[in-house]
Amino acid sequence: MKDKIIKKATDMFLKLGFKSVTMDDIACEMCISKKTIYKYFSNKEKLIEEGTEVIHQKIHSLMDEVVSKDFNAIEENFEMRQMFKEMFKSFDHSPAYQLKKHYPEIYEKMMENEIQDCHKMFSQNIIKGIQQKLYRQDTDVEAATKFYYTLIFSINETTLLESDAYTLEGKALEYHTRAIATEKGIIELEKQLSIYKL
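^ thats the sequence. predicted structure below, dont judge the formating
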């Protein structure tokens, strides 16, 4: 029952907003009593906290899936972007923006995990791109990684609409890739841009 509550609540939070969905709304939607929800979660914040952890795990298993398909480094980034588009296409408002605005403590805790995971994944992508001669040999991996995830997180936490955030993330990806790409990398970037039409 606990997992079902997390799943339903998380779907509702993402679609309708973390602030606007109440425990009553969740109970009503699931045809259970509010008491049943409180049996597992002492308050709404606990439910949001566990829900964001479930989303975090889901995102990272999907990211691992993309990495396992062995795309080239630039193609991999575009495939990741497509995966996020599919995952968040039904949401009007950016979940990160809402969470930061209404539940900053939960947001900060989530970001600590995200920064570690993204740092590892972006670094691996840059190293892979250097080995494939898509990114320049002299690329400062640490700096490029930090620049990119700082840019992505900043877009997500300051952009209200999910569609606007998605567009800006595309521009950030192009900007990031052009900054470190070799001539071969630019050709691959242009190919991906023509496929995905940023």
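The chain has one domain: 53-196.
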